[in-house]
Amino acid sequence: xxxxxxxxxxxxxxxxxxxxxxxxxxxxxxxxxxxxxxxxxxxxxxxxxxxxxxxxxxxxxxxxxxxxxxxxxxxxxxxxxxxxxxxxxxxxxxxxxxxxxxxxxxxxxxxxxxxxxxxxxxxxxxxxxxxxxxxxxxxxxxxxxxxxxxxxxxxxxxxxxxxxxxxxxxxxxxxxxxxxxxxxxxxxxxxxxxxxxxxxxxxxxxxxxxxxxxxxxxxxxxxxxxxxxxxxxxxxxxxxxxxxxxxxxxxxxxxxxxxxxxxxxxxxxxxxxxxxxxxxxxxxxxxxxxxxxxxxxxxxxxxxxxxxxxxxxxxxxxxxxxxxxxxxxxxxxxxxxxxxxxxxxxxxxxxxxxxxxxxxxxxxxxxxxxxxxxxxxxxxxxxxxxxxxxxxxxxxxxxxxxxxxxxxxxxxxxxxxxxxxxxxxxxxxxxxxxxxxxxxxxxxxxxxxxxxxxxxxxxxxxxxxxxxxxxxxxxxxxxxxxxxxxxxxxxxxxxxxxxxxxxxxxxxxxxxxxxxxxxxxxxxxxxxxxxxxxxxxxxxxxxxxxxxxxxxxxxxxxxxxxxxxxxxxxxxxxxxxxxxxxxxxxxxxxxxxxxxxxxxxxx
Length: 603
Fold this sequence. Notes:
The protein has 603 residues and is of the alpha/beta class. 37% of the residues lie in helices and 17% in strands. The protein is built from 20 helices and 22 strands. The strands form 6 sheets. The chain has a 6-stranded parallel sheet, sandwiched between helices. The longest helix has 24 residues, at 199-222. The protein is globular. The protein starts with a strand and ends in a 6-residue tail after the last strand.
């Protein structure tokens, strides 16, 4: 063993490699993304690594590899689990031959997600074992244990780190190369009675799953994954994940002592360990994020075994019901529960007010030009603009104000169709990125063509998966294994499913783009416009724009219409922030007095 300073996601990847990982697949989504990326970076070529088109495809690929005896892992964020849930629910009944860890990173807050859904609850729903690490070190160690349990019980298992574990850093013990395991999968062995799901097989499998989970509850109780820290008094605290670290720190700050139950495997719940913890306790406070999983489980245990212990937490109003916990909030929860005074905060001068920094599209982002062109083309016309998940969701911000709906990945294409069915005099647009098009919007396009919809599909093609860190996708022509492959042509796909009108424009050529949107939107049926321009972060910037003071009339149209961070006010006048400006030329095309020059599209 040796020490390394690692991010939680990197530690998980390294732990999986040390456990003999053979295949890893996933779809990028914060806070999970770095797990697969670290695996790719540390790969000597013996591990197959894949960014799949979506989470469903990733899980099914990993399932096939696990059927063949491989140790596999799938990575995603909590909303990605919704996409993967169809095959996963059936796979829970079919099982695996090798090992399969489904890593689902939850996002309390939420910090970068649509929801605060709790994968621990999904574990109970799907009847799959769940592991909930509390630190970077435990994440490294526990991922190996997750593979062992998966292989022993022939079942997929859920591994559920949260944002603060995924993105936290710690100096941890890491195995040396010679300590790491390697596995040679046996290969797929034909057995239709096992691998082909039928009602009779599912019925029998369901009974076995229930028996297995009873056994796992006992095994987990004895495994050391759910330890109890000794303490004084008749009041105890139960916690999980990063909240265990918050509890530990809060207890030190308060100078308090109480028994603490750390739940590392929330499902199947370790009942015997819980009973040992509850002995002699009058009350227990459950500190957890998202759902009251531990609280409900302890209430059930108390009822089942006739215990009089009072269980407190979210359901009783002792802990807030949404958002992240912090050391400070946990300190207050525990102090109130134990009847202690909260520690006084250091008396410091008041902190200065932080500047307001709303999320905004990057300077030079081609999506800004795409939104602006559509806005200009449809000025004065009744229109609805349906958005999607990605950088372009930020098109909702003023002054663009171009995202009227946003639900989940790929939904905008179908929502636009639904709105048009009711608001027949409305021009309906659906905006989707190139990566999201491949992930989940293709089916929406097929649905639109098949059901004779009347809408305009706007594909914002910046040739990458920008929101999550510029991962490749089928349209980029490269894979995570370093292969150069043929690009999947979006225009060809659209024409192949029956979209007859497909236009491709450079959104930074504003005049032509506006004209194209006008003529295309007037056509009936399903039509598509591909706005193609590379992500500003991935290209070498042009020379920055220059404002001619003699020509500028200080109308501020460039600032008020575009909201580009590369344009600022200095002494009440429009100015260019040269360090941010990429020279995209959009502002020069918007200026009514030709006062902006020195940029590519204005020359």
